[in-house]
Amino acid sequence: MESTILKTINFNAYFGENRVVKEVNIEIPKNNVIAVMGPSGCGKTTFLRCINRMHELIEGTSTSGTMLLNNEDIYSMHPILVRHKIGMVFQRPNPFPNLSIYDNVIAGYKLNGMKISKPDRDAIVEHSLQKASLWNEVKESLNKKGTFLSGGQQQRLCIARAIAMEPDVLLLDEPTSALDPISTSSIEVLMQELKKNYTLVVVTHNMQQAARVSDKTAFFYLGELIEYDITKNMFTNPKDTRTQNYITGRFS
Amino acid sequence: MKPNIPYRLGKSRFFKGLIIVLSVLCTVPLFIILIYILKEGFSKISWHFLVNMPKPVGETGGGIANALVGSLLIVFYAALIAIPLGVMCGIYLSENRNTRLANWTRLSVDVLQGTPSIVMGIVVYFWVVKPFHTFSALSGSIALAIMMLPIVVRSTEETLKLLPDTLKEAGLALGLPYHKVILRIILPCGISGILSGVILAVARIAGETAPLLFTAFGNPYFSTNIFKPMQSLPLLIFNYATSAYEDWHDLAWGAALILLIWVLLLNIITKIITRKWRVQF
Amino acid sequence: MREISSITNMMNVWKAVKIKRSVKQIRAEKFFRASLVLISLSILVIVIAFLFTLVVQSLPSIKALGFGFLIGKTWDPVHNIYGTYPFLLGTLLTSFLALIISIPFSFATAIFLGEYYPRGWFSDFLKNAIELIAAVPSVIYGFWGLFVLVPIVRSLELKIGVTPYGIGIFAASLILTIMIIPYAASLGREMVRMVPSSLKEAAYSLGATRYEVIRDVILPYSRSGLLAGVLLSLGRALGETMAVTMVIGNTSVIPNSIFAPGNTMASVIANEFTEAASSLYLSALIEIGLVLFLVTVVINMIGKRIIKRFTTE
């Protein structure tokens, strides 16, 4: 029986008076890739950003309900602590342009003022870049700034930066939508590797990607979690007609 | 009814010529002034000129050492006050687009920017000079710092507003506290814009005289004490140029050239920084 | 390359350390946010205190002299008579004269840089020259004005048969003209550049010449922006002290022609502040400063308001 790492109970998210995530109840098991899919505006990205408490950075937003990480209420911890345990990779790769590749990977430690010995730092950087499948491509140019890398490499750098923090959960917000097909597939392959050590929650607007990479899939529609099942079952035998319609392309 | 095409075309060409002539004429006074100052000032400058004190009336020679050092000190302290305050205010304004404090602060910055420099001097006189019963370089620096603030605040706010939001998000998502995200990520990325704003502000106040008339006041002797009156280049130029003594006029020309070079150099440095240090996204 | 398990262990250790440090960070974060607010607040406070100081220090003069202050034609500190009409006149004359002379030049530059030559080596050159004009310190303009312009004005006055003071309203206006060109020019250039090319193309396609497009499309469209530039130049002229003080002659009587010496509000303060013996004298000078402050700030704010409305349309 897989243990649950992330669980929500009647979770809601609001933009002002507008409720965009409605009564979501979901349990996410450890070391899985969970895809969150649905049409534009269904609340999937908002839901994701609630998990690491980025949603509340926008003025006028609020949430209600419970969200538990390893049975601890995320919303009673300080957001900074939450974000140490839950990492995020964004849609557009965003390495820090003023830092070198090396410093980008170690940014979570360095910018927090933690004094780590050079051999330890080198080990973390190499380890994270290896896990992100980027080490061989950048090991000769660790001191260069990250902006000369291609889109796919930049995104893998962002992944390395996030996993250097050893988070429990890694959130990915449409991580490949700004990338070319080859980079996309390399990141999809990477996700399968990453799930050995981390739990991944991936928002995607690409159904085929959800089918390729995930173990379980959650389908959101108009803010509600319509269906949540093992991916193979969801795509071959959806239980809700709305899921069925989405999968067969009736709306997107 | 298409009347007179050649006439209209002629009018258009004449207009263009007029525009060109007027525009070029704008630059003429500038060059006349620059060349004149170069001519008059160049012969007065020497090592002796730079390191000596002004001599009493009647004696030839002398230099502007006290004004040079004084200017450097007064401007230095003004920048010391204005830069942290201005940058922090700029950060606040770029992070808070629409709070009441932000809107009122922007208004205040606009008011400060439009304030005549002589009025600046008057107010700081009552704030600093009168209570302590002495003119001082510090009061001059305070007046100049207040004049620098709008430029620094404005350029910081504009620079930071241009940075993409994803930069801040990436930092916050890593679990970095807000002040680290701002100080270690956002500020360094905007450094070229902020620095050029700072240097422009310094260039602007380096040549200001009016705020110093009743604050730093000027000092014929060499002094590095910020709690006492201090001489500065613009003050020296004003006093000596309007005096009746030929020797003092000479000193003023040399000082004017130095001041001009200083201000021009700062402006050029600003242009270089904006081009070379801009962080690309 | 260390063993993977030991690295994971190490990173977990650092993660625990980081969580402990986080508490300190959270306090530092609160302090930082509070400082941001505090500093912005203090700038607001500075401006309010500014106004307060000016008003409080002018009160004695306001109470004693009342409205006569503004319309009184005699300024005689020795006999405690403080009428500032000469200075109001001096300020208005020099500023508006400078404005009128400089506008054709500013607008020409604005059209040159905004429409005819937005790019190119000469455009860069002109742009830099204009910025340089604004960068030159005013005391240097005054110095040059005193030694070069004033003798020229003096010989001009001789030729036309006026008392050859040299210094005076006219010389001050000339210097001001040069100094304020950049303000209307830079802003004007931005406004001219912002005219949408679709409008211009529509006019061209109807057979208009370039001059006609400028006259009938560009100028009307950027009218308010150009006005804002003029206001900014005016604000600059009103507040200018040093260059004017050095060439205007510092005479506190009503000038009887533009070739006569006079005084502006700014220059009388600059000249007489440190000599003000009585407190009423000082207070009167401060009141002049207050009026100058209010007028300049209002004009600048109107200019900025126009710009904001224009750029967010």
Total number of domains of chain B: 2
| CATH architecture label of the largest domain in chain B | Orthogonal Bundle
CATH-defined topology of the largest domain in chain B: MetI-like fold
The largest β sheet of chain B comes out as: none
**Beta strands of chain B, count:** 0
Tell me what portion of residues of chain B adopts beta-strand conformation: under 5%
CATH H-level superfamily of one domain in chain A: P-loop containing nucleotide triphosphate hydrolases
The ordered string of helix (H) and strand (E) elements of chain B is HHHHHHHHHHHH
Please name the CATH architecture of one domain in chain A.
3-Layer(aba) Sandwich
- Note the beta-strand portion of chain A: 25-35%
Name the CATH homologous superfamily of the largest domain in chain B: MetI-like
Largest β sheet strand count, sense and barrel closure of chain A: 6 strands, mixed
Which structural class do the helices and strands of chain B define?
mainly alpha
CATH topology of one domain in chain A: Rossmann fold
The counted number of beta strands of chain A is 10
Mean pLDDT reading of chain A: 91
**From the alpha-carbon coordinates, what is the Rg of chain A to the nearest angstrom?**
18 Å
Low-confidence stretches of chain A: none
Largest interface: B-C, 83 and 85 residues
Produce a short descriptive summary.
The complex is a heterotrimer of chains A (252), B (281) and C (313). Chain A is α/β, with parallel strands linked by helices and 252 residues long.
Describe the protein in words:
The complex is a heterotrimer of chains A (252), B (281) and C (313). Chain A is α/β, with parallel strands linked by helices and 252 residues long. Chain A has a domain at 4-94 and 168-247: Rossmann fold (3-Layer(aba) Sandwich). Chain A contains eleven helices and ten strands. The longest helix of chain A is centred in the middle third of the chain and has 14 residues, at 118-131. The mean pLDDT of chain A is 91. Chain B has two domains: 5-42; 50-276, MetI-like fold (Orthogonal Bundle). In chain B, 75% of the residues lie in helices and 0% in strands. Chain B is built from twelve helices and no strands. The radius of gyration of chain B is 24 Å and the shape is globular. Chain B starts with a helix and ends in a 5-residue tail after the last helix. Chain C has helices at 4-65, 68-71, 85-116, 121-135, 138-160, 169-193, 197-205, 210-221, 223-239, 242-247, 265-272, 279-311; strands at residues 75-76, 81-82. Chain C has a two-stranded antiparallel sheet.
